[in-house]
Amino acid sequence: MKFGKVSNPEQIDFTLPSDHPDTKEVFNKYGSTSGNPPIYIGCAKWNKQDLKNFYPKGIKDELIYYSSQFNSIELNSTFYRIFSPEQFEKWKDKTPDGFKFFPKIIKDISHFKQLNNIDEVLDRYLLSVTHLGEKLGTIFLQMNERFAPKNFDRLKDFIERWPQDLPLTVELRHTDWYTDEIVAQELYQLLENKGIANTLVDTAGRRDLMHMRMTTPKPFIRWVGANHQSDYKRLDDWVDRIEEWIAQGMSELQFFVHQNLELESPLLSAYLIEKLNERLGYELTIPNGSIEPNSSQGSLF
Fold first, then answer.
1. Full-model pTM
2. Closest listed residue to residue 268, CA positions, set 256, 283, 279, 280
3. CATH number of 9-280
């Protein structure tokens, strides 16, 4: 994932901003404080070429192994093509109970058409992806950086027509969505009123997009490592924030780990999962065993 990539990560201030004041209200209003909420942590891909050295020798089916190690996948392959209903059913059948797919909406809708005249392609996309059945997680709409607030009506129309029974999260990259206070408030209220998540991207080169305004009690976080030792401290800070969110009523967390070199994503995911298990009493599977930042077993640096 090259979005937000920098050549000097040691010079970036990765401090997590304070939450937007309305985030706590959303958790309190819509969430629950009864027990630990579900947490889904995964990578963006499962193929062996990207996750080099993650798979033991002799593994014949990468998805079967991946889903034994992780409880979810941010399914970026659906950004590039519409797979057949049969393909989604095959993926569903290969994965264990409780596993979730979080598919990205095809780029024809988000990038080429930019939400214009999309009825036919959206119908085809949803007809296929819903064959994941109970393993379908939140669907993910990512708009490109050219999609600015001047196109608010297109976004509003899309959200108004979105099927209410399908969870959705929206990622907006044009900085004016967040730096223009009037625009931001209108956006937040639209998403909150419709029960749609406001995707948060934690990446080095776009700290301006750390809005920290959750619009549902189910945050959708896309975390991008910088291939730098600071990645571990950044994940430690997220464990602190997740603990706070749980106390405020967060009802589910969807957290996907990216790297500029994706082969390192499983190691960082394992570190995050282990810390959540230790701190908050979860029993999430730690992919490929316990990973410590300075261990000879799996150090990235």
1. 0.93
2. 256
3. 3.20.20.410
